[in-house]
Amino acid sequence: MDVDEFRVRGKEMVDYICTYMNTLRKRRVTPSVEPGYLRTALPSEAPMYPEPWDNVMSDIESKIMPGVTHWQHPHFHAYFPAGNGYPSILGDMLSAGIGCIGFSWAASPACTELEIIMLDWMGKAIGLPPAFLPFSEGSKGGGVIEGSASECVLVSMLAARAAGIKRLKHQFPTVDEGLLLSKLIAYCSKEAHSCVEKAAMISFVKLRILQPDEHGCLRGETLKEAMEEDEEAGLVPFFVSTTLGTTSSCSFDNLLEIGPVVRKFPSVWLHIDAAYAGSSFLCPEHKHHLAGVEYADSFNTNPNKLMLTAFDCSLLWVTNRYLLTSALVVDPLYLQHCYDHTAIDYRHWGISLSRRFRSLKLWFMLRSYGISGLQKYVRRHCELAKYFEQLVRKDSRFEVVNQVKLGLVCFRLIGSPDENHQQVDELNKKLLTNINASGKIHMVPASFRDQYVIRFCVVHQYATREDIEYAWDVITDFATELIEGPDK
Ligand code: PLP
């Protein structure tokens, strides 16, 4: 494809995407295909000779689309939103077009500098303390775009691990590092995302998973008891991962209690994972959830969830960037440049060397929507969740099980008095299976307080009350059929 054909095909592709978006309602939300469906539809080997573009595009509609789950569908209510604002799609397009690889400042100065500035804009907009922001006086802080929240948690844990080992090595210079590593222990709540467990597996450290309170919130006293107990047993607490807006129920850990506990232990790193909820802090009415953030060493959020920004865009801030970069630095000659002692080289801030120009999509989003436009989306998202909550509460067959603070409502059928815990779980499982099999709306389950619950998340950028009412009608129709039989 040469530039002239790209000009034509590029415009056609934008047209295709616009038609796709405008006609999404006509499609099933989830595909009805079996694993391996595509294997039988495509040749077993790559073509030896070029194929006409039109043929390739026609296979998109006939072969690929039947297997697509439409995350941007107005009736998609699973997981958390996968932001997809048009300015961010265009930002990704431009990033692909420029095609630079910004592993160091010198590798493409604008790529690094725009990222620093976007993280500064975002940090200020959501209300992070100056210690996280690179341009504040005396600050050692800074932010970076990682590929996922999982990576943010992992690199924070790796930095904390390196600092922990360094400190222990100083105390016990003759003890082998492997033995010191075996003493390190991290903490999180049972409600934390599974990526914390994965980070501990990769980091080869112990992880103690703590019981939250009845609202899914990790409390200071629980953490304190666990850390003291472990310290008495000869272990070394080094990392605490908290969550603002958990995946299962959108609960918030109590930072005001946890922060002072962590401070009592020498050099324990406090991380805050606000993958979903972080963007809500753009709104003053949600900023109170951040109380206690000043105790944290690192904080992450995904604008690719609640800030309409196309995946991937996971932001991580730290209060001491030197702890992060010293844990991840490897510096071969071919990557060095004459400014590497003064400029930021993002290759030392994460796992991968090569990195895309991801800050462009944030830049386009922030400038096209403005903070006010993004606040409007967040508010609408939360209002619609409250509306769904009201609908659930009006139907005595159901209960709402979480505190609805943002866009997630967890609910379940209560079941009849003669049904036990397991039977009620089975009932809800059946309800969700039937709904999802219909392809009319899509939701996913979660376990909350050891119960099977159904998660309903407001997702679509332009969701309306009618979409919420449609979803509730689908849910109640299936519930009636399940409880009373198909003829009712
Ligand atoms: N943390 C929280 C609170 C999440 O909700 C999620 C995903 O939904 C993650 C971490 C993992 O995000 P990612 O897919 O960006 O690794």
TrEMBL record:
GO terms for molecular function: carboxy-lyase activity; pyridoxal phosphate binding. The keyword Protein biosynthesis does not apply. Keywords: Decarboxylase, Lyase, Pyridoxal phosphate. The modification N6-(pyridoxal phosphate)lysine is found at residue 305. One of its GO terms (biological process) is carboxylic acid metabolic process. GO terms for cellular component: cytoplasm. Its cofactor is pyridoxal 5'-phosphate. Transmembrane segments: none annotated. Belongs to the group II decarboxylase family. This is Tyrosine decarboxylase. The chain holds residues 1 to 488 of 622 of the full protein.
